[in-house]
Design brief:
The chain is built from four helices and no strands. With 76 residues, the chain is mainly alpha-helical.
């Protein structure tokens, strides 16, 4: 399922806001990739990847199962 479909149909946001949220999420993800690469070089890569997968999975689950308020969705 596309991210815009989830935000528009399930969460009731406008398409423009959904696209903005997804663009912002991609920018944060890029920064996160750079940061986690740096942490993986300094620490152990395996533990860094496990932590990253846990955080990504947790935030996706919270967003899908969270309330329908736009304030909650925008803060995620």
């Amino acid at each position: 399922m596309l991210g815009t479909t989830v935000l528009v149909e399930a969460k009731g946001l406008s398409f423009d806001i959904a696209v903005f949220i997804l663009i912002l999420a991609k920018a944060v993800a890029f920064t996160g990739y750079l940061f986690h690469s740096w942490v993986g070089d300094k620490l152990e890569r395996r533990n860094t990847m496990l932590g990253r997968f846990f955080l990504c999975g947790s935030s996706s689950t919270i967003m899908l199962l969270g309330p329908n308020s736009s304030g909650f969705v925008n803060s995620m």
